[in-house]
Amino acid sequence: MKKKLSPGQIVEKFQVDGNDVIFRVMNKNDAKGCLRHINSLIREKAYIAWQKPFTLEQEREWVEDNMKKLKEGDRIAIVVEQGGRMIGNSSVWREPFHAKRHIAHIAIGLNTGRGMGIGFRLMGALERVAVEQLGCTMLQLTVYEPNKPARRLYEKCGFVEFGRLKNGCYHFGNYYDEIFMVKYL
Questions:
Q1: What's the pLDDT tens digit per position in 39-58?
Q2: Which structural domain range is residue 72 located in?
Q3: Rounded to 5, what percent of the chain is helix, strand, coil?
């Protein structure tokens, strides 16, 4: 495995439409940017697990938990910046149970940059981090059935559906299937 990533460390940098896009490890000062990000997704009614806005205090606690898990070597949160502004974040974390430590879970969310290849590159970066930093050999994620753009992205990245939980999520008044996807590395 490579040397451990540290808070704020750049994982990848590239350009889209003349703007720098940076994937970097979350640091303790990211709570306000993360708060804007998550609350904008909630206002948009994006297909994510959260439906009620977060407070700054809640987001600070979440960032602190990510810093703790990074130090323990179990979770790496990556923020996405474009043109100096946070446009998304993501996480990769491994199972806590010894028999399942080879499995990493992925979650991503982008406010903007959809359809520009940022999500595809982010998934690649998360896969590399899962292998190089967490030592994982399998990736899992879930997606809500109506989120077809995300499903296409995950399939393009090599994920396949392995199960569904019928009506597994309740999203702003509607039930949807939760689709479970896997990629073997």
A1: 999 999 999 999 999 999 99
A2: 10-141
A3: 30, 40, 30
Q: Are 141 and 178 in contact (CB under 8 A)?
A: no
| pTM for this model (two decimals) | 0.93
CATH number for the domain harbouring residue 111: 3.40.630.30
10-16/19-25 β-pairing: antiparallel
The secondary structure element, H or E, covering residue 121 is helix 118-132
* Strand pairing report for 85-94 and 138-144: unpaired
User: Is 165 part of a structural domain of the chain?
Assistant: no
Structure tokens at 62: 């979440």
The H or E element containing residue 19 is strand 19-25
Neighbours of 136 (CB within 10 A): 22
**Backbone dihedral angles phi then psi of residue 29, each to the nearest 5 degrees:** -95, 10
Number of domains making up the chain: 1
d(CA 57, CA 75): 21
* H runs (alpha helix) in 28-55: 31-44
Share of the chain above pLDDT 70, in %: 97
